[in-house]
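Hi again,

Forgot to attach this to my earlier email, sorry! This is the prediction with adenosine-5'-triphosphate bound. I've pasted everything inline since the attachment limit keeps bouncing my files.
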Amino acid sequence: MAQDDVFKKLVAHCKEYGYVFQSSEIYDGLGAVYDYGQYGVELKNNIKKYWWDSMVLLHENVVGIDSAIFMHPTIWKASGHVDAFNDPLIDNKDSKKRYRADVLIEEQLAKIEDKINKEVEKAAKRFGDSFNEQQFRETNQRVIENQQKWDNLHTRFAKALNDGNLDELRQIIVDEEVVCPVSGTRNWTEVRQFNLMFSTEMGSTADGAQKIYLRPETAQGIFVNYMNVQKTGRMKIPFGIAQIGKAFRNEIVARQFIFRMREFEQMEMQFFVKPGTELDWFEHWKTIRMNWHKTLGFGDENYRFHVHEKLAHYANAAVDVEYRFPFGFKEVEGIHSRTDFDLSQHEKFSGKKIRYFDPELNESYVPFVVETSIGVDRMFLQVISAAYCEEQLENDMRVVLKIPPVLAPVKLAVLPLVKKDGLPEIAREIIDDLKFDFNCQYDEKDSIGKRYRRQDAIGTPFCVTVDNQTLEDNTVTIRYRDTMAQERVAISQIGSIIGKQVSYKTLFARL
Ligand code: ATP
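Structure tokens for the complex follow:
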């Protein structure tokens, strides 16, 4: 099935099974804003717990905070967001559709990369085991030409971004003959900068209301609390502060479902280090974060690092963790070495000292910062994309979400085979016993086959069926979602069988 179709089906599935709804749907929706349904919220909470515990429980030098969304407006002046948190936009004059100029060029680069990869794949099939990819890439004329095209375009693009040269960005789009997918024309406007921050007013107008911003990242809440946490927690450098919270960006083009939203949630950790050691810590956190992703078992080949073409105004190194979504490799997480930029700026703008007294050096300095920043919603999309699976069975087709059991919204469904003979009562007793440990669901409607399909569709890893034999020997069948295998076990064993597989501890042990 084409990847576009898979993605469409996945979006429809998320709605049909209570994972994600369009916000304000009965009013025809609000662009790039989404609500999470009854299963979506559980998955989101589980993702957050996986992240939070891996940061705060597993690292004794990382602590968490929860700062307010509203902050003093000068913070955003100091951080550079008021002046520089922009994206370059371009409009097509015929369709009146708006695009991000940098994204149009990135898509052009991806197209060339695709061409190269297709050549390589074709050759790999032709030559079989004797295929030498490196040699092929170095000698095949078409690959060499496309690689040169890619290199030239990439160099030109990176330079234009770094110079902030909007005319050159437009010229690249013209030279590359990029067409608008809606109108099919190349009738482009100039490229303009567009600030992504939302603003609102605080206080009544009679008092002179103050313009404030909805935070576009959670990181600044951490920076302005650096001294509070360092002092009250008696933290010694190196140490980190973690936070999960909402962020808001007035994205120019909001497409691809929950990949790019205007209201989203971030999980960020700022790690404060001694100046000069930041690039070592940057490498350290790159490894830790990549492991965190790969441990979920979605396939190591589906991840890669992508080095930024353009460093943000505050960074001296930056890399993205990219996952292979149905629409290609895209960023899920950013790891940035942010230098001492933010803390120094807040020192300057607030007039307060933001320093660390290092007892070993016997001197004070402004710490450097390495940040890991991941979107909860993009992580959610990663999990759902990896999990969504259509399987052809002997006489049937099933759609199953193979979500890792530890993250699955419902861990266990308890199903009485029939609605009589005391079977529902036993099923209820099992739930009463297990509901403090696991999210359980009771279902007695329809045939057992239909009930299994419903649980497959929401990703429940275990179904327990109570039947007549249960009345005789207190055993039930436990059915495993991924293999559909069934096993007869004692009721008293259910808790420990499931417990091991859904435990964060088991997952953390693999990190
Ligand atoms: P992009 O290049 O895709 O716009 P970014 O580089 O601006 O992302 P960061 O500022 O590094 O993103 O934000 C850190 C993380 O926050 C991203 O890796 C992503 O997971 C998440 N994120 C950023 N913007 C959005 C958005 N509009 N919707 C959902 N998640 C987002």
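Residues 473 and 490 are 8 Å apart (CA to CA). The radius of gyration is 26 Å.

That should be everything now.

G.
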